[in-house]
Each structure stands twice: as C-alpha cells, then as structure tokens.
Amino acid sequence: MSAPRGTIWELKPHSLGKHLVLRKYLDAWLPILGQTQDQIVFVDGFAGPGEYEGGEEGSPILALRAFLNHPARSRITAAVKFVFVEKDPRRKARLEELVKPLKARLPLGSDVEVVCDAFDKAMATRLDHLDGAGKSQAPCFWMVDPFGVKDTPMDLIARILAPEKSEVYISVMYESINRFDEELSRHLDSLYGCRDWRVCAQIGDRDERTRCFFELYKRQLKNAGAQQVIHFDLYEGRRHKYSIFHASRHHLASDRMKAAIWNATLGGDFVFRGGQTDQLELGVDQPNFEPLRRALRDTFGGRGWVRIEDVKEFVMSDRTDYHETQLRKKALIPMEDAGEILVKSSQGRRDTEQTSLPGFLEEYTAGRRSARRYPSGTELQIL
Ligand SMILES: C[S@@+](CC[C@H](N)C(=O)[O-])C[C@H]1O[C@@H](n2cnc3c(N)ncnc32)[C@H](O)[C@@H]1O
Fold first, then answer.
1. pTM above 0.85, yes or no
2. Are residues 265 and 322 in the same domain?
3. Are 152 and 53 in contact (CB under 8 A)?
C-alpha cells in the first residue's frame, strides 16, 4: 500500500483493529502505572492528523480520550504527559486543532505536546538532553506506527527500551518488505540494526521467509533490551495485512497486551493470528485452547509439584499467545477434570471430582467444578 498524500485519508478496517487494541491496552496501562508513578508518558511517534475522512479518531485523540474518559480516572494520580510527533506540517496543524479542546480538559500537571519533526531525530535529541542532564526517562508507552518500515531505527528502540517500565508497540507492514533495492536495504539495515535480514530475503518459500523476518525482529528487540516480545499478525481472509510487535521488560505488560488483542472484536473477515502458535485465530467463535494445554504439559509435565505463580507467569509471558485470565477455565479446570493435573493447596491434595453423575448430582458437580479456584499457595503437578 502506498502512503496517502492528502492531510487526511480513509480509515481502513485493519487500522481500526490497531486502534481497538491500543484503546483496550491503554485502559489497562493507565491505571496500573497511573496509580504508582509520579509521571507517565504516552508518545505517538507517527501521530498522523488525529482524524480520518469519515470523522473517525486517529490514535493520538484516542489516547487522550482513553485518559480523559477512563472509569478509574479519579484514581490516576500520576501526571500524564502526551507527546505526539508528526513530520508533515499540514497533518501536525490539523492534529493541533483537534487536540486543543481536549488539552483544556486535562487535570493540572498533565499535558500534551505536538511536535512537527521526524520521530527518530526528535526523540534522539530529547534522549540526548535527558542523558546530558543526568535525568532518567519517566515510564513511557511508545507507539511506533509508520507507513512502511522507514525511520524506526533499532538503535533508537534500544534507547527507548532502556528504562525498566518503558514499552514499545510497533506496527510493521510486511507488504512493504519486498523488492530489495538499495533504498529498502538501507531502511532494513536500520530497522533491524544488523545486516542479517539478507539471509531471510534469500528464502524462496513466502511463509518461511516471513517467519524468518519476524523471528529476526524479535531477536533484535531482545538484543535491544526487551525481556518480553509478543507478536500477532492481522489477516483479512488469507491476506496478511500487518503485524504488531510489543516489546517490554515485564510479563504483566505482555499479558495485558495479549488480553487487549484477544478482546479486540474485529468483525468482518478480520482475525488476529498468534505469533507463537501457528494458526491460532482470535476473534473466532470457538478459539482453540489445546495449544495452551499442550504448552503447559510440555513446560511443566514431569517436573513434580510446581507453584501456581510460576505457571501463571509462564502463561503471561511471551512464551504463549494466551493471557492469564484464560488459564483457569480454559486449561486448569479441563485438565483437572481429565486427570491430567493434580492439585495441592494449603489444605492438602484435592480429589478430582467424578465427571459423570446422573441428574441433579451431575449439575451440582458441574457447578462446583466451574467454581474451582487455584489461589496463591496452590501447587500443581502436571502429569
Ligand atoms: C500510519 S500513519 C499514522 C496513523 C496514526 N498513528 C493513527 O493510527 O491514527 C503515519 C504518519 O506518520 C507520519 N510520518 C511519516 N514519517 C514520519 C517520521 N519520520 N516521523 C514522524 N512522523 C512521520 C505520516 O505523515 C503519517 O501521518
């Protein structure tokens, strides 16, 4: 897809998917950090004009409203700073107009800044100033949403990922990684921070090639300091539209991002597919949870008693495509019913309920089964 030339353009359904995920994630991020930090920052590095042809909101406006209209806003005590970077002066001017009335509603201490500059240049300069003054960065969510793969150098991503509580949400339009001419090669060297992508470019099979490009990007994000990197692909029918990468230093961040992706109801012919579990499709009527149960067996099976906290951390991490809220009902209860796990709480070993009892007893037992909990202190043995 070529980049639009006008100040505003039509919102494509796949971009709407990106916005749904962003909104759901910010709904979690704002109160988590907003109640424990003095200041938090949201940077939209490729902000756009703030609206689309049909009047739909762009990502910067969506982020401002996520804060202003948050149901827990009164409990968000941090000063929330928004920095929107847009290189095109006409788009920046439009964005400023849209921001003005919302800026007036921000609580004391919170603020919005709209910058007309190139993301990499502007942010590198700011980080240099902070470093020069010996100051540290406040916890920051960075949205990096370019057209194509330009101007998102890995050395800058490494700098923005340096603080403990910073995270980056990057959308990659895979379609723009084709025709490996000199110009694209330069951009890819910068995107990856290495020249190894050339090995991927040699691979004939399209799916293999795509996997190679994405695995390398994940590896480079980890080399840049991320502890957790999750990756999901958005498809329209069989067509791969774009990929989302989320890099952070904590499994709680990747868990909340996975929950946001799972809970974004896209409709139409659109689905997200997990980057860990080939063909895992989200947004379908009956998602498949067998890969989650298999991952638990593969990781913990035969290891004796393991703490529920360790199992949860595993599910929350970038080693699965699932999130913690799914663990109990979609994995532990069915596995306990099938005799695949043993459960020990502070009161001792739990007996597995019989699964087929007639009439009332069956209903009674089913009710008890679905109410089953695995509180902290529980230990599991996955057989
Ligand atoms: C994909 S659009 C952003 C859409 C927006 N994030 C949203 O979801 O509503 C990319 C925007 O980045 C701007 N842009 C392109 N190169 C840039 C750069 N190097 N730095 C900052 N902005 C840039 C473009 O003018 C365009 O408005």
1. yes
2. no
3. no
